[in-house]
Amino acid sequence: MKAALLSVFIAALLAAPIFAADTNDLKGTWSGNWTPKGGVPDSITVEIKLDANGKLGGKFLTPAPMDFSKVSFIAKTGMLTLEAVDAQSGKHYKVDGKVQGTEIKGTFDNNGVMGEVRLIKWTYFGR
Fold first, then answer.
1. For the purposes of burial, counting CB atoms within 10 Å of the CB of 15, is it exposed (0-12), middle (13-18) or buried (19 or more)?
2. In whole angstroms, how large is the CA radius of gyration of the chain?
């Protein structure tokens, strides 16, 4: 019994890197919605880019167009943080989420109003 448990544990450890996200997988447009606690869902769209040096960047397209002021990504865990400040209103926006394939699930902070966020990466399948 112990040997079977040990082999399952080792197999899980070896498979873990397969599920880790890669920065190249983040490139593209992600959209979905966020729902403030007790509120109505609202749309959100972000565009994530990777520059020639491999540094992540991008911008919010909605709720307001603005470049990211901070982007952090931990490939091993899939944790992603995107932050921006709207120059016109001064509002701060922040996404904290986990990348799982073509989805990002986590929280969205809209200038102090917290809620859940779910974004899906736009994909194109040619004919």
1. exposed
2. 17
* 20-121 placed in CATH 2.40.128.120: yes
Amino acid at 108: F
pTM (predicted TM-score): 0.79
pLDDT in tens, 39-84: 899 999 999 999 988 899 999 999 999 999 999 999 999 999 999 9
**99, 74 contact by CB (below 8 A):** no
